[in-house]
Amino acid sequence: MKKYIFLLTLLAFIFPKEPMKFKIPIEKPKDIKLVGKHNSQSRTEEILYFYDFEGGEEFDDANGDGQWNIGEDFIDANNNNSYDSSGDGWSAYGNWVTNDQFYNSDTHSYNSPHAFNQNSKFQSPTISLPELSNDPSAEEKLLFKFWILNNMFDADGNNNGFLDDFFQLWLLDLDAPTTWHKASSPSVSEEESAYWCADETIGTNGGYGENYLDFLDTPSVLVGENGVLFADLRWVIEDYTGASWNNSCTDGWDAINVRISSDGGETWSLLEDPNLPYNFECGMGFISNDQNYEEGYSLNHLAAGWGGTNPVVFGENQFSTFTADLSDYANQEVIVRFAFGSDWDVSGYDDSSLTGLEVDNILIIDDEGYAFEDYATPGPPDIDGGLMLGDAQAYTFLFYDWKGVDPYFGLPRPGSNGWEEYTPGSAFFGMDTSSDVTQWAGHDIKFEFISYYDGNSDGGQGNGLFFDDFTVFKETEEPLVGQTLTEEQLNTEFEVCYGNDQYEVGDTFKVGDYDGSTNENGFHYVTLINIDASWCPPCFDNLYDLANLSDEFSDNNAFMLAEGLFDYNEFGGDNVDSQTTCNEWGEEMANYTDSPPIVFDDSDYVAMDWWETDYSIPSFILLDHNMQIRYSGNNLTYWSTRGWINLLLDECGDLCNNEIIVEGDINLDNLVNILDIMILIDFILDDIYNQEADFNNDGVINIIDILFIVDIIIDSENL
């Protein structure tokens, strides 16, 4: 008897084995962080695929410039400026229709309107994901996003904690690795082997997983007159008895059959053995992996199959021989396929006795003799010598969502209040969403949206689910550390809301002020920028360490500290609970140091967006004298920061010697007087050469250099 699916079943498909129920999450997520915008400096997006459902318009990045433009590989497959489910590559099953009343862009979206007891699927065309580069200096991700308007009112009308109307998103991997391999098996000794469709890590003895469609093909074989196929088969899969599903031809669950193609695999026909008849006409193991196996669609003629356990012919745990007449294929090149499809529930993970499908002793015999033979003889565990070929596709469940308000946070779900973009990394609280498809790099994939409506509208009835502007893109993130600030970052002006000796309140501050290659005095600096929020207790606690750093380096005007505040509504420290201003934040720091840094207003999150610290605070950014980022993160302590500053000052060397040099000032007291002459005399008497004292640059310290200082003293007295 089929197990029913409840909350803990992650996988569920278009025609679930009972009304689909998903528990609405009510527990607080383990990790909550404010997610921000993409970093404009270090992240780039290359559009790989875009679809907006406007008249069948499809755009590809044909010229490789990372942009899509109308007119670039413009495709209107049906040439009538309207969308249909077949002409544009997207396939609709069930009630999905074009809608011109609600859309995110232009004139149309795609809509699954409300309908009782309706489960409908909307599938993308094949999308070829690129391979990722091997550049260790850049992190590449393959991601997707889309716009959604969710008007499925009946989320949980009966208040039982399970969803009524909702949607799911799946990914179909058309290049999934095959599980077919040559091996000893539950029915074959170590001295022998068979072709086995199973994952040996599943269950006790190996088994199969969910939502997998796996094929074992012969090479192309020329069949002569009166050809016959023989193959020994053994299977132990899910029991098919009692299988049914509303609105489906389903009369079996996991399914196995044998097929043949005479056109190189473009089309297939079912092979049958009257002595080993199929158990059912429509296996859910096929339908759940491709809706075209459903009645009325293009692959329905291949939906029949076996289920349960094969008939015992040669004794318990043994093979049955499948025999098929190939006389209709005389003098043709054919491919024979052994097909196995599993649905979303009950597999080797659930029952260790379900060991899958085994095939052995494959023979094609005609009037000329043996046209093909493969006995799966013992050897390496891969497919035998290039003769038999494995091919597979598999579904992966990505996420689900619903209309309404998150039960824990009280926040609206995406699309509940109108069109909203479902983007990677969005903070959909209480929900683990996955928009990262990087693991499928180099594969052909399809996306599949499935809408579920129950048999009533006890929570209300809306216009259903709307979908628009689907985008697949590659995100490249260059390591922030090591990058030099852009011109925009150097020259963006921020308002100073707490001043010091260098800036007054109301002045503008920009990071470029500390860039020695461009600032007016030509001085180089080592710069620490700290980003805080006044409601953040760690930020408040951090003020003491920053104050100590200000004091320690107060005599070194080559070190600059700037404090950015992006939210200053209230303090979060243990000893402060009142409303505060930016100026009061600076005054708090001034309690610990005589040299407080400036505080600048970053309430628009401009600087915070630059540094890629995931909006975690406090954030620390260290810049060397070349305006190169040397650290960006959240974990600096007083001692580690102090070490960083000293290191960067040492690297800067004389470029960070910003003291005013007074000509003739040998002892560097900013005065030229008799003391400098006395030091120069000592150099002469002790025969010491000092370049700084060689004022005429003749390579010798002598009376001429003394006269040089005397002239400076006399000139200064005459002023």
Explain this structure to me?
12% of the residues lie in helices and 28% in strands. The chain has 719 residues and is α+β, with helices and mostly antiparallel strands. It has four domains: 43-174 and 397-477, Jelly Rolls (Sandwich); 179-382, Jelly Rolls, CATH 2.60.120; 487-656, Glutaredoxin, CATH 3.40.30.10; 674-718, no CATH class. The strands form four sheets. Strands 4, 7, 8, 10, 13, 14, 16, 17, 19, 22 and 24 form an eleven-stranded antiparallel beta sheet that branches. Strands 1, 2, 3, 5, 6, 9, 23 and 25 form an eight-stranded antiparallel beta sheet that branches. The longest helix has 16 residues, at 537-552. The termini are far apart.
Please give a handful of descriptors for the protein shown.
719 residues, alpha+beta, Jelly Rolls, eight-stranded antiparallel beta sheet, 8 helices, elongated, disordered N terminus
